[in-house]
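User: Run a structure prediction on this.
Assistant: Running it now.
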Amino acid sequence: MGLTLEGRAKKIFAKFNFICEQIAITRTKVAGRTSGWLLKPPSAGKNIVIYLHGTGNDALYPQISLFLKLLSHGLQVLSIDLDGHGAHSTTKLDPASLSACLEELMEQERYLPLDSKVHLIGQSLGGGVVLDFLAKHTDSRLCSATLVSTPLHLNQLNSFPYRELGSVFRGSLIRQFPIYGLYHLIPALGAFKRKTYPIRIVGSSKHAFSYVETVSSVFDMMRLRDKAKKIKLPVLLCYGESDEIACSSHGRIFHHLIPGSRLILMDGETHFTTLFSRLTEESIIHWIEQWSDH
């Protein structure tokens, strides 16, 4: 298996002289500590990307390729564990308080100075947190947002773990092999790799897939269809045409509801691989650069 994923990531970032600093934020609105990564190019400007990952992942996996792209364009990256996630974090996932992780991060002036220009990216569950936050808060530092594979809701929960098996044949996934290696490229599923990518849920059962029902309840509580109507920030929507979890129809609905949004559909990409698509990466870079001076 060789290096841990953190070790592989640090080696890759160092190769390009990118600064890679692990950070920890003591939480006041929920009990525990949130871990994350602050990544900087050699010459960093005021534009900072905040990244929120999806269910069952963490602040580093599986977005290293995107981070490299962002850093190569002079953008800082601040990626944190969602509540209940991350081997170095201690919080628990509570559907009633999930959005607090982004609320408290925005209060960290040490990492997000008052003159910084902030761009939010949320993948899947992380995108739901971004939308929920934007519907409730305004901040002069915010410049743009991007949602990648964010569902309106989750359906057909019984088949949830098996609906992305076609991902292994996608070229966008295969091109990630030099970054992750075989073992680290495979996502956590059920109980598999849960020590590496834990999910700590308030009042959860020990069932391997109990987190799916919890995440479904999160989306039900967020009521993203209603929240989307309140969004004023420019929003890029990236969805895979073969995504059976966050269907492209969900992206079209968000596009209709969010004024000034832009929808990009990735041909053949699944829920897991949409983030790996070169078109996704290029679209995100172009979107952020478009709004960096605003």
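Residues 278-291 form the longest helix (14 residues).
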